[in-house]
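seq as requested:
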Amino acid sequence: MDFENAVVVASFENPETAEAAASLLRSEGIDATVSADDAGGELPNLDFGRAVRVFVPAAEEEFARAILNQGDEDAGDQ
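struct tokens:
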């Protein structure tokens, strides 16, 4: 992914949740990448405080946010 033209669409506290979100976006055809501030896995204690981020191309930002927020909208309909 070209990080110069990428934006963060979500942040998580753990890599598993971030990977699940990225997988959902990929299933919709969006090039999603997960990045964590943990020194390449050598210092996992550095990924505290929602430091695991999901990136997508800027051109896909609106679609990606709509997909990730779909569950929130559905919960309000009940």
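The longest helix spans residues 61-76.
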